[in-house]
Amino acid sequence: MPEGKIVKALSGFYYVAANDQIFQCRGRGVFRKRKVSPLVGDFVEFQVENDLEGYILAIEERKNELVRPPIANVDQAILVFSAARPDFSTALLDRFLVLIESKHIEPLICITKIDLLNEEEEALIKNYADDYRSFGYEVLLTSSENLANLDELREQLQGKTSVFAGQSGVGKSSLLNALKPELELKTNDISNSLGRGKHTTRHVELINVEDGLVADTPGFSSLELTEIEAEDLPQYFPEMVERSHSCKFRGCLHVNEPKCAVKEAVDNGEIPSYRYEHYLQFMDEIKERKPRY
């Protein structure tokens, strides 16, 4: 039975890459009965009907999956944030990081449009970049003119399935076009009145870039922390994981507990206060969520 990987889903067809060919497949009715939908990124077994058509018979177990964009088995997320237009937001970045961490996907932070800043603003962004590096994240800075550091990004893409995610208008499509000009992905100017870009990406497709596969996704349309429980949140902040063994109580949530190593680190300036404030906001949001039955 041939095996392959779904690289595109469109109008009820799944395009499966196997042996340097693409097969247009339909899913068997059995998936609908089980309420399982094949996703882009799935490893599947399929049956060939003729040269380039077939049916998907089985989906291998996924290591992770995202709902929006609908994609499975992602190795890393390139979180594209602009330094300006739209303005850089640590609150939004932390929300993305928590969601990505909760799916066991490796994040890579890419801050674009550095060339649009004055010296003072650039220094501030570089401080933020240093903060995130100190938490253990990889951070790349690029300018919209020469897209510096692309070689570094190319290296990171090799042999991995990656998603590009971030607000609309931050330059995801521009970055991908710079990596692979023949893609000619549509890029829309930012709507000044809204301060955010228009969605230009319609369906999920994995494209070959630098010996890896990349999904150009329409960002995350939902950034709610609906699948995360309060007791799990601390493990999605690497700087808290690192210090939690020094807390007095096991399972410390780093909120009101005495002798908490994380709160001490915030007081000492080892963990930036904005990062801890976002943690508390997320914790409140999770606790205020209506229970699901």
TrEMBL record:
Annotated compartments: Cytoplasm
Required co-factors: Zn(2+)
Q: Where does GTP bind?
A: 112-115, 166-174
Instruction: Cite the binding residues for Zn(2+).
Output: 247, 252, 254, 260
Q: Which InterPro entries match?
A: G_CP_dom (IPR030378), NA-bd_OB-fold (IPR012340), P-loop_NTPase (IPR027417), Ribosome_biogen_GTPase_RsgA (IPR004881), RsgA_GTPase_dom (IPR010914), RsgA_N (IPR031944)
**What terms describe the molecular function in GO for this protein?**
GTP binding; GTPase activity; metal ion binding; rRNA binding
CDD domains in the record: S1_YloQ_GTPase, YjeQ_EngC
Q: Which PANTHER family match?
A: SMALL RIBOSOMAL SUBUNIT BIOGENESIS GTPASE RSGA (PTHR32120), SMALL RIBOSOMAL SUBUNIT BIOGENESIS GTPASE RSGA 1, MITOCHONDRIAL-RELATED (PTHR32120:SF11)
* Protein family (similarity comment): Belongs to the TRAFAC class YlqF/YawG GTPase family. RsgA subfamily.
Q: Could you identify this protein by its name?
A: Small ribosomal subunit biogenesis GTPase RsgA
Origin species, per record, is Pseudobacillus wudalianchiensis
Originating gene:
rsgA
